[in-house]
Amino acid sequence: MVSDDGQPRPLPRAAWAPLPRAGCVGVEGKVLLHQATLVLALLRFAPHGTIDAHAAPFAVDVVCLEGSGYQRVGDTETPLRAGEGVRWPAGQVHRLWSGGEPLLTLMVEHRGPPPVAGATG
Fold first, then answer.
1. What is the pLDDT of residue 120?
2. Domains of the chain, with CATH numbers?
3. Which residues are paired to 78 by β-bridges?
4. Measuring CA to CA, how many Å separate 53 from each of 38, 92, 120?
């Protein structure tokens, strides 16, 4: 939780825990930030860990921090390596999995409306 009063708050889910989703095997996560329009989470995949194919009603940026694996969005499957990222568009079926090595990703869920072009905050 991030506050406006300058006081530290505990993370929404600071400890590694298995993803609470059927179809996820060998994947643990921790939630770093959970706001109405933005969620940041780390996902740690064991070798051959997987998240099943599903869609989300919001765009998701996947940033590979360590290791390598594979991702699929729609009908397109590609490798994903450390230092690379991909955006999964809202409503598109996507999947993420590791090969024979561990994989660490930062997931950025954009749950709010897209920013207005030219707007300043």
1. 56
2. 13-58+68-110 (2.60.120.10)
3. 71
4. 22, 10, 36
pTM of the predicted structure, to 2 decimals: 0.87
For 85, the 3-state DSSP assignment is strand
For residue 110, the 8-state DSSP code is E
Q: Give the separation between CA 121 and CA 111, rounded to whole angstroms.
A: 18
Give pLDDT, residue 69: 97
- Consecutive sets of 10 residues in the chain, 121 residues long: mean pLDDT of each? 79 93 94 94 98 96 98 96 97 96 97 67 51
User: Looking at residue 83, what DSSP letter applies?
Assistant: T
CA angle 41, 72, 16 (to 5 degrees): 25
Cα dihedral value 76, 79, 82, 86, nearest 10: 0
What one-character DSSP code corresponds to residue 20? S
Q: How far apart are CA 41 and CA 27, in angstroms?
A: 12
